[in-house]
């Protein structure tokens, strides 16, 4: 019996090692999430899709490339009957290995035809760009990716500014970087494009148009479609500007570039009010009054320049056509100490049903070593209610996501500046003191009448055989489903092989010790069956997580925090302690980036729905590798003043 016990212990150790190894290779973006940044997002129907970018996991804070196509379900805020307060993350979509996962690109949404277009972006430090540039497309109906070869005049760009306009069926991209991570044949320092790209999603046609009249390259700013003039306008601001000598400087937040689509002409207009500090790698969204009398651009966060290089944890509104900046977070009159601000950059913003700005992820510029997580319980999602949330006592912008909210009303912060009411009726309709161009004065008196676009293809009928979702397309229809079935099967076979080996070994030893005695008959071993498909469960020991009791209500004026409904304070809950079940619907594991990890990490959960600057403070030892080096040197080593460098590294004054 002693021999059997010894062999059983060895077998148990081998099985545990195998299971732990398998679990370590299957980091779960739902249960193990820590941070996400550099990704792209877009809304089609009731899904907010996420592609590319990088992420960290709770117990493995190395930097990984997100190789999955994910989506947040905009119809629910409950996961396993628990109220999260924000859209639930799902992982059951297809992305074949031949389609790259990039950082700093954009997803253009063709709502009418249920198709996403992935444009631009750059490869990770450890990867080489593909031989030729292609435009990638995801078919929502078929859950399949495809690739197209664009016009030869189009180059891959990264960290430019883009948007798609549904009723026009057109997409736009302004500026962006060209470097060795966008083009394998690139030689020399990075350069910024000064072109405006236009893509006809219906006719599959490209237009490479000139940018603003100053001909400076632009990158890391933002671009929005504004429904004024005959066919609408594009508004661009912020980011980095690069002159013909390669000198980089901060893009203006007070001078707005305007492109009239009907006239095919660029203009500039000065803005006034609470002008934000210059910034780059921030994000935003736009909402328009019911009567069309104003359109309001909301922005959040970003990296800064010079003494402000660490960046910002704040939010502003640019109201058009008055071109007035309004600071909304922290609220006016609130004094916040620097230590209480949590600047973020490289997040994505998506407007849902014209009323809520869903902000996903972002990197903490004060914490590039990943010593904190971005609300793992809500997968780094934060919600800015563009009309404000009326709690009965006060109104605030940060709040839970409401799947039924589909109306935008003008908040009082804007009404105080332009007059009118919640539905529009703006009284002030021009900048102070006036428009910088007589043309703009005329164009902004016209508003666009938006008509729904007719699809060029028909949605497939839902049948009993096809199912109502991609989850039901067959047990081997996606890599996630194949992994969910094959991984447990393979592990089960390996475990049985190990147990069988030691059982035979024990039997032979016992037979030798007992001579020719016939052993007593014994019933066969019983194995626990999974209730779903009869496959054995695979368990992996997870780093123990500390249990936290009820989270306190925080002062609504506290920096980085906000008071929310009681649903966010229902604790106690455990931050995914115990064992991990291998996910049933996941794609292959993400690609790990270069670097090593030293130390261990555990984290405390906080309420979901808080502002994007709300981190989770963990217990940390050791040092962790930083995210992409591109663009982060200012965050790590802020320059002494507003100095920039040319392509050769020589310093120039900002006034050059």
Overall description:
The protein has 656 residues and is an alpha+beta fold. It has a domain at 33-460: Kelch-type beta propeller (Neuraminidase). It has five helices and 44 strands. The strands form 14 sheets. A five-stranded mixed β-sheet has the order 27-31-30-29-28, with helices on one face. A four-stranded antiparallel β-sheet has the order 1-4-5-40, with no helix packed on it. A four-stranded antiparallel β-sheet has the order 2-3-6-9, with no helix packed on it. Strand 14 and strand 15 (170-174) form a beta hairpin. Helix 1 runs antiparallel to helix 4. The longest helix has 36 residues, at 479-514. It starts with a helix and ends with a strand. The model is unreliable at 1-6, 8-25, 463-482, 510-606 and 617-656 (pLDDT under 50).
Radius of gyration based on Cα positions: 27 Å
Shape annotation: globular
CATH homologous superfamily designation of the domain at 33-460 = Kelch-type beta propeller
Distance between the termini: 86 Å
Topology:
Layout (H helix, E strand, L loop, with lengths): L1 H23 L8 E5 L2 E5 L2 E5 L2 E4 L2 E6 L4 E4 L4 E2 L2 E2 L4 E3 L15 E5 L4 E5 L15 E5 L4 E5 L12 E5 L4 E5 L2 E2 L12 E2 L2 E6 L4 E6 L6 E3 L2 E5 L6 E5 L2 E3 L5 E3 L4 E6 L4 E6 L1 E2 L9 E6 L6 E6 L14 E6 L3 E6 L14 E2 L2 E5 L3 E5 L2 E2 L16 E10 L4 E4 L13 H7 L19 H6 L35 H36 L24 E3 L37 E3 L9 E2 L8 E3 L14 E3 L12 H4 L6 E3 L5 E3 L3
Parallel strand pairs: 27-31
Antiparallel strand pairs: 1-4, 2-3, 3-6, 4-5, 5-40, 6-9, 7-8, 10-11, 11-12, 12-13, 14-15, 15-18, 16-17, 18-19, 20-23, 21-22, 22-25, 23-24, 25-26, 28-29, 29-30, 30-31, 32-35, 33-34, 34-36, 36-37, 38-39, 41-42, 43-44
Helix pairs in contact: 1-4
């Amino acid at each position: 019996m002693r021999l059997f016990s010894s062999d059983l212990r060895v077998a148990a150790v081998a099985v545990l090692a195998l299971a732990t190894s398998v679990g370590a290779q299957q980091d779960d973006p739902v249960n193990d999430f820590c941070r996400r940044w550099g990704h792209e997002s877009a809304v089609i129907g009731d899904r907010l899709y996420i592609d590319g970018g990088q992420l960290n996991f709770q117990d493995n804070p190395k930097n990984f490339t997100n190789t999955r196509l994910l989506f947040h379900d905009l119809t629910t805020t409950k996961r396993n009957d628990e109220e999260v307060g924000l859209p639930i993350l799902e992982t059951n979509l297809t992305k074949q290995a031949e389609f790259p996962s990039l950082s700093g690109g954009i997803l253009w949404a063709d709502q009418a035809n249920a198709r996403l277009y992935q444009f631009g972006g750059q490869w990770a430090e450890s990867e080489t760009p593909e031989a030729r540039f292609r435009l990638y497309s995801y078919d929502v109906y078929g859950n399949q990716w495809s690739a197209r070869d664009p016009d030869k005049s189009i180059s891959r760009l990264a960290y430019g500014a883009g948007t798609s306009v549904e009723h026009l069926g057109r997409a736009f991209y302004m500026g962006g970087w060209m470097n060795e991570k966008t083009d394998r044949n690139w030689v020399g320092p990075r350069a910024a494009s000064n072109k405006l790209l236009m893509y006809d999603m219906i006719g599959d046609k490209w237009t490479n148009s000139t940018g603003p009249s100053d001909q400076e390259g632009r990158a890391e700013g933002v671009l929005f479609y504004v429904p004024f003039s005959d066919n609408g306008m594009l508004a661009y601001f912020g980011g980095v500007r690069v002159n013909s000598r390669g000198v980089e400087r901060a893009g203006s937040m007070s001078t707005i570039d305007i492109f009239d689509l009907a006239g095919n002409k660029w203009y500039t207009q000065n803005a006034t009010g609470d002008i934000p500090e210059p910034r780059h790698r921030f994000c935003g969204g736009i909402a328009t009054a019911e009567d069309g009398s104003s359109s309001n651009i909301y922005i959040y966060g970003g990296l800064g320049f010079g003494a402000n290089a660490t960046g910002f944890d704040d939010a502003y509104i640019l109201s058009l056509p008055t071109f007035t900046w309004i600071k909304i977070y922290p609220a006016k009159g609130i004094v916040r100490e620097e230590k209480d601000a949590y600047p973020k950059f490289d997040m994505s913003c998506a407007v849902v049903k014209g009323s809520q700005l869903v902000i996903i992820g972002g990197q903490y510029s004060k914490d590039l070593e990943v010593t904190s997580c971005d609300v793992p319980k809500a997968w780094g999602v934060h919600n800015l209610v563009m009309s404000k949330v009326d709690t009965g006592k006060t109104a605030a912008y940060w709040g839970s996501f409401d799947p039924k909210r589909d109306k935008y009303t003008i908040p009082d912060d804007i009404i105080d500046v332009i007059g009118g009411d919640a539905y529009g009726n703006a009284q002030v309709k021009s900048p102070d003191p006036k428009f910088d161009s007589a043309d703009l004065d005329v164009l902004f008196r016209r508003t666009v009448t938006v008509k729904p676009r007719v699809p060029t293809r028909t949605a497939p009928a839902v049948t009993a055989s096809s199912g109502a979702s991609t989850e039901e397309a067959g047990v081997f229809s996606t890599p996630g489903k194949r992994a969910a079935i094959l991984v447990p099967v393979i592990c089960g076979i390996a475990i049985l092989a190990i147990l069988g080996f030691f059982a035979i070994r024990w039997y032979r030893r016992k037979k030798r010790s007992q001579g020719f005695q016939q052993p007593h008959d014994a019933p066969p071993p019983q194995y626990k069956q999974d209730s779903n498909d009869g496959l054995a469960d695979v368990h992996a020991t997870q780093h123990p997580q500390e249990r936290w009791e009820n989270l306190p209500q925080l002062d609504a004026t506290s920096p980085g925090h906000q008071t929310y409904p009681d649903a966010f304070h229902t604790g106690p809950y455990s931050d995914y302690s115990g064992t991990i079940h291998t996910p049933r619907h996941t794609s292959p594991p993400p690609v790990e980036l270069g670097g090593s990890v030293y130390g261990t990490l555990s984290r405390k959960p906080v309420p979901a729905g808080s502002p994007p600057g709300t981190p989770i403070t963990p217990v940390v030892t050791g040092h962790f590798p930083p995210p992409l080096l591109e663009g982060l040197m200012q965050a790590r080593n802020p320059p002494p003043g507003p100095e920039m460098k040319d392509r050769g590294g020589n310093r120039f004054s900002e006034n050059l």
